[in-house]
Amino acid sequence: LFRCVFQAILIFCWVYVRKYQSRRESEVISTITAIFALAVALITSALLPVDIFLVSYMKNQNGTFKVWADANVSRQIEDTVLYGYYTLYSIILFCVFLWIPFVYFYYEEKEEDDGNTCSQVKTALKYTLGFITICAVLLLIGAFVPLDIPNKKNSTEWEKVKLLFEEFGSSHGLTALSFSISSLTVIGMLAAITYTAYGMSALPLNLIKGTTSAAYERLENTEDIEEVEQHLLRIKSKCRDGRPLSSRDRRTLKQLEERLRTLRRRERHLESIEKSWWTKFCEAIRPLKIVWGVFFIIVALLFTVSLFLSNLDKALHSAGFDSGFIILGTNLTNPLNMLLPVLQRVFPLDYILITTIVMYFIFTSMAGIRNMGIWFFWIRLYKIRRGKTRPQALLFLCMILLLIVLHTSYMIYSLAPQYVMYGSQKYLVQVRFIVATYNQLGDIFRSYMFFILFPFILDQCIVTRTYLFLHKFWFFSAAYYFGNWAFIAVFLIGLIVSCCKGKKSVIEGEVDDDDSDMSDDELSVYYH
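Below the sequence we write its predicted structure tokens.
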């Protein structure tokens, strides 16, 4: 099963990259890097449902462990999943801080200097060294941040340093990796607010509304061409008797000539699309697209309402900013928290739902990046277009997806915290929460509340491995909390904008006056 899923992911990544890759500027190294990074992103997102399933599968419905799930076996399963997270998160760090930047800068140097390959590699390594330095700093900070070290006034400096190394050794590097991943997750949160929130509103509504007719657009485009040509003739008629054109007329003439070239490119694209088999196929499955659009908008609303109620619960009942808005149990029930326990009764409906939400989060992120393009603040760097996307844009797309995937686990945890921690496990003894302050337990953080679940202490329930990466640092949890509010706000704004906008053009993004892609004037091979 896992082999089939892995093969399906690789095939999807290859098709997706080849679909959007520029036919004229394709490079082997950038193609392989994009496919690999995209596959890592999808595999990492698929590990969360697997983690939840494994901790749930070790127990019976009556709360007892299964015969085969003794202490050693359960520990081996936990370690296997943990090593899986170690491996995938380490690969993500490698891609984000080393491989993708190196390939990007190598390709940039190749465009400027086609001669010396050695010089291109050296220059790419020089720029990549900055990313490696940032990664090393994050790992060192995460490795030696004293989270659980008692503050003894009479201890020497050597004893404190020795205690730091002992803590690092006892955690097997988990704290260092967790800090680095959490730092990237904050960046992924910003990317999710920008791209995923918009994609969740734009994708369903675009499917429901559809696109304008190619024949109708072609008719309008022909009328525009005739109008521009008549305007050009009127301006050129002014200089027939040998008089020079004024500076204003020359500027207008240049603008009209550029406009005419753009309209003729649109004419070629529209003619190609109107005759293509793909357009006829899309028209045939139009009812199916509407059904999918309605389904996606329902999932998006379920996701947003659940996230709003979860955040509202934290705002009203959490221990505050200094605790990272840790909440002691669930006081406001959200739709997803209500739905998952019901679906647990019929295997494997709950895992199908959580997998659907994770995959929906990833694919709406892809849709958001595709619709908006790659931006640096207010500057658009690249566009994502079928058959015309530059290699640098694909590398940026894959890096953004890697960062968004890191934030996915916390988003799902915000929606259903108990389910993400324990899955569908049940326990035999009725217990209550124990609440204590970190000061009572000798921790250095002041007034930081937390809770301990008795079944976990008594080995009655096994916590998922993904939870170990989520709440090691309270300040990251606080950032995620405010990020969730921003996500909800951007989704609502995107939903209003998408509802007010009309149908998309059938060649949306294919031909634009301000197009920065080098392949702007080539006819898309995708439609042939």
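The two ends are 36 Å apart (CA to CA).
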